[in-house]
Amino acid sequence: NYLHNELKKRKKTGITLALLHEEYKDSNPNGYYSYTQFREHYKRYVNTINPSMKQIYLVGERLFVDYSGLTVPIINKKTGETNKAQIFVAVLGASGYTFVDASYSQQQKDFINSHVKAYEFFQGCPRVVVPDNLKSAVISNNKKGIVINESYAALARYYNMAVEPTRPYKPKDKAKAEQGVLGIQRWIIASLRYQRFFSLDELNDAISILLDKYNNKIVKRFNKSRSELFNELDKPNLQTLPKERYVYKEYKEATVNVGYHVSLDKCEYSVPFEYLSKKVQIRYSNSTVEIYYKNSLIATHTKLHFAGSNSTKTEHMPKSHQYQSLKTNPGSFLNWANNIGINTVYWVKKELKSVKHPPNVYNKLNAVLSLSKIHGKKELDLALQYALQNSLSKTSSIKSILDKKLYLQKELSDIHSHQIINYHENLRGNIYH
Questions:
Q1: Can you identify the CATH homologous superfamily of domain 62-237?
Q2: pTM higher than 0.90 for the full model?
Q3: What is the mean pLDDT of the chain?
Q4: Residue 113 in contact with residue 103, Cβ under 8 Å?
Q5: Do 130 and 65 contact (CB within 8 A), yes or no?
């Protein structure tokens, strides 16, 4: 106990076990332990006051995940450049059964997709996942508490799991993961050192073959393989997987604008107008957009991929806007144009086809077609014929043609009948219907 108390002061005093041994010899000149014996007795004493707790894992309960410090190069065939594939390792606590996945990064999307592959490999999911404190999993882990990355928390909710990150500076918390990583480095990564890979698929195929051998190797301590232990212990006790595969989603905070839409990647999505000016959370994948207010789903949309596009649902509008929206769709504009003239129909079709998302020109179409109420249908149709022949499309240009009556020019009237025939082709295509 004296030795232990003295060594606790070593940061202040600089004392060492060797010095304490010298003092011990001076105090016992007639008989004393050698330094090796002295050190061994001290170690035994320390173990009695601070025993190492053996980690015992319940079957099907815990999955430990981490990345290998060693990477595998993937060669770009075109440039010859190499990318370092990151090696994700997932180890079940009770059986040690292991899954390995190569990806291009440790970023959130790759990290989560590797988890999804792991659960499919295990044909079930654990009740607790234990990650190291990388940013894709944990925002902060300190005395004030643990803050889990929202995308990772969503994954855990979907699979009904708890997330228990390892404690900083507590290596025993992640011993299982580190043992698994070490095993994978020795038996898989080292075995691949002379092979060349040109894609992640090639690498993962090679890993899969070696992983099968690794999991089927006999573990001397148990005289059984990890696969046997998995089938006996973990597999029967894993949670059943959801029917649908988890889809990775990203998260963004937004404020509903005055038009009851939120902006995402230069596109806009509607929400019920009652949420005007409210702060909402957008959860989105490559195919869907979900909008939440205080964790309640208030709107869903198909993901748009062209800048400037918008997705507006009629049920999100005030009643006055719903009535107006009945007048704004491609078919309604073409019907309106058909009542004005054949050149007008062609001009409307041309405008609708000029954008990837038709609603982007609705205001323009409404403004131009409304000119027929001021100048007359025949006059607008002739003005649009003039605009088409002279490649003029701005609303201001069409107004100018009408105001100056440029459509009455003699050379235009001479080709009037011929021009109509050219415009008549396929007037009612798919966009009309």
A1: Ribonuclease H-like superfamily/Ribonuclease H (3.30.420.10)
A2: no
A3: 82
A4: yes
A5: yes
